Amino acid sequence: MPTLKIDGQEITVERGTTILQAAEQLGVQIPTFCYHPGLSIAANCRMCLVDTNKAPKPLPACHAQVMDGMEVWTDSEKVKRTRKAVLEFILLNHPVDCPICDQAGECVLQDHYFKYSAQPSRLFHRKRHKAKAKVLGPNVILDAERCILCTRCVRFCDEIAKSSQLTIVNRGEKSEITTFPGKLLDNPYAANTVDICPVGALTSRDFRFRTRVWMLSSERSVCPECARGCTIRVDTFENVPRRYKPVHNPKVNDWWMCDAGRASFRDYLGDRMEGPTIVAADGRRTAVSTAKAVEDAARAIQAAGGHHKVAVIASPWLTNEDAYLLARLLTGALADARVYMGGRAAGAGDDVLIQADKNPNRRGVDAIFAALGVTAQPLASFAGAGVETVVVFGDNHDAAESVLDAIKAVPRRVVAGTRMSPWWQLATTFLPLRLHWEKDGSYTNFEGVVQRLRRAVRAASTCKSEGWYAMKLAQSFGDALAFDTPQDIFAAVASAVPEFAGLGWSALGDHGLRFGEGAAPAAGPSADAQMEASP
Amino acid sequence: MATIQVKRRDGLSLAEKLYIPEVMRGMVVTTRQLVKNVFGHQDIATRQYPEVKKAYPERFRGRHRLTWRDDGSVRCVACMLCSTACPANCIHIVAGDRGDEKIEKYPVSFEIDLLVCVYCGMCVEACPCDAIRMDTGTHPMPSFSRDKQRIRKVQLLEEGLPSTARQGGLGT
Ligand code: SF4
Ligand code: SF4
Ligand code: SF4
Ligand code: SF4
Ligand code: FES
């Protein structure tokens, strides 16, 4: 194993390690543009040039492998001059229209310029102009002038999305990113090119001009749109989510997420129903307090004349904590009730990230229900005969007309939901729920990786989680079910469900834990460090 | 140790005690001032506001205005640096796509809440485009509603003036 010295610090690394990786292990920072840990190495931007004793000229640290006895200087005068020169070349024709550039504030070029160059332009000629605001596909727009030709986007399409849609045409200063003739940048992962583009050349058509990035607050969470559960950052401004960004998680999604998931946050922004209501027989709605609404729901259940006439519709959108509390209700006070499992219908999947199961926590809910002894029938088999009261948890259920009609025929219908939907319409008692970004909790993805959901948005105080309602109902039937925090519930899950054995709330960390990883210590840097480092 | 100086009034003199002479003395001062004001305007200490207004120093920070480009469009590119810099958080901008090749972004709406503004001038300092200025030399006017004090893009541009600064910088 070769031993080398970087800025005077000695380190021994595996053969084949690059200088950049070795420096990273030592905590020495080397600036880069074209290098991305998830893509092949192109070494075309030359930002990472470092001085060594093994070559007369500086070497690109992202590409050059270490040698035994190598000495590397990342901060010598020569390296500083080289970096300045590289940046001057990159910025030669750069429009520097930062005020109207969406990347400003998270632009690697801005950061590197201020840190490593900070010299005014010496160009007296007119700058070369290229296409601006060129639409590449449904989600991505290109400003060719800002492009630094690092080819990260090209490599992403080739290597990760497996759909060669981008390329560079022309040579020299006329080089330009474009799509192949007649093609659009429309693969299901296209918007990741926006994330990895180090400058503002590729920007999101959805987020374009909406919010300056420095105004956003971020919280780590999980994308709920399919069973993969990509680790994401929910970026909010004024308590409203503005975008999702994928966050690096080697256990789940690496650096990526799909475009459908990324765009899905808009589905939850409108039509929130935040007030508990009771609907009279003549259809008149009355807004009531939360306590009143829960009381009313409990009364509706008792009025069924025996719990075997109560049907409860659970959901694979419940967090592990909510599922546990609901399972406790369904094995305690409501042990005789019939249980159905709703959720979204399966869709298309692929072998990159997207799963056919469009629900975020089926694996977790199933495991918890199985361990506590709750058996759920599929919602499609709901017939309604003999059911006097139905309790629906969540409104992300795709149900056939016949099922909806059967539910409508049930005299008392308690619905816990988030927004205007067919489910809200058929409620006789409506309990407002929190959305996934308003919850603290955890989801289990299809591979059994349990990840934390963190609250990014403050919900109206009338909105509660499914588990909270389940707990209140259980209490009103005389069950001693009381938890204060999601930590406590998770601890109860870990001791009651074999799959969760040994998993701890704080040990879930940033990358989550896989079923059975219980004893292993949490890996990975803290959320904040990771967010900053995410390229 | 501090020394305390004690001054005593010696009480009123006879003339003061008589009261009438002192009143006359006061009347003389008043009458002199009256005659001066009526026959010689020059030395009046007060101003005939609002007919006569004070000339403000050149760098007085008055009400804001937005400047125009040569073609009459608003110079502001909705970069939101002013609203970021504003310590009072009183600038509200909604950005939109101008559909222009070179300068794509413009403010669809631009509002300043003058009741919240502290007239610090940070917004002017922050603007990279010479788009916002506080050189109108005018105060916020009183109004009957709070809403009138939220001045909008139209008003800001009505007060506006063309800026000759070059947008886009050298070498464009
Ligand atoms: S890409 Fe970066 S440096 Fe270039 S205009 Fe945008 S923010 Fe400025
Ligand atoms: S568009 Fe962005 S990612 Fe693609 S080559 Fe240009 S700078 Fe690199
Ligand atoms: S003068 Fe100061 S307080 Fe007023 S709008 Fe400008 S930055 Fe804000
Ligand atoms: S006034 Fe100036 S600083 Fe404010 S948004 Fe417009 S261009 Fe930016
Ligand atoms: S990062 Fe090494 S050459 Fe671009």
Structure write-up:
The complex is a heterodimer of chains A (535) and B (172). With 535 residues, chain A is α/β, with parallel strands linked by helices. Chain A folds into 3 domains: 3-91, Ubiquitin-like (UB roll); 125-268, Alpha-Beta Plaits (2-Layer Sandwich); 277-514, Rossmann fold, CATH 3.40.50. Chain A is built from 14 helices and 24 strands. Chain A has helices spanning 19-26, 77-91, 108-117, 152-159, 192-196, 259-263, 290-302, 320-331, 362-372, 401-408, 422-425, 466-476, 486-496, 527-533; strands at 3-6, 9-12, 49-52, 59-60, 71-73, 134-135, 140-142, 166-169, 176-179, 202-204, 217-222, 231-237, 240-246, 277-279, 285-287, 310-314, 338-341, 377-378, 389-393, 412-417, 429-432, 441-444, 449-453, 513-514. In chain A, the strands form 6 sheets. Chain A has an 8-stranded mixed β-sheet with strand order 15-14-21-20-19-16-17-18, covered by helices on one side. Chain A has a 5-stranded mixed β-sheet with strand order 2-1-5-3-4, sandwiched between helices. In chain A, helix 8 (320-331) packs parallel to helix 9 and helix 8 runs parallel beside helix 12. Mean pLDDT of chain A is 93; it is low at 520-535. Chain B has 5 helices and 5 strands, in the order H-H-E-H-E-E-H-E-E-H. Chain B has 172 residues and is α+β, with helices and mostly antiparallel strands. The mean pLDDT of chain B is 88. In chain B, the strands form 2 sheets. Chain B has a 3-stranded antiparallel β-sheet with strand order 2-3-5. In chain B, strands 1-4 form a two-stranded antiparallel sheet. Chain B folds into 2 domains: 15-46; 65-159, Alpha-Beta Plaits (2-Layer Sandwich). The interface between A and B is medium-sized, with 21 and 21 residues. Bound molecules: iron/sulfur cluster (SF4) (4 copies) and FE2/S2 (inorganic) cluster. One iron/sulfur cluster (SF4) is lined by residues 76-82, 93, 126-127, 129, 131-132 of chain B.
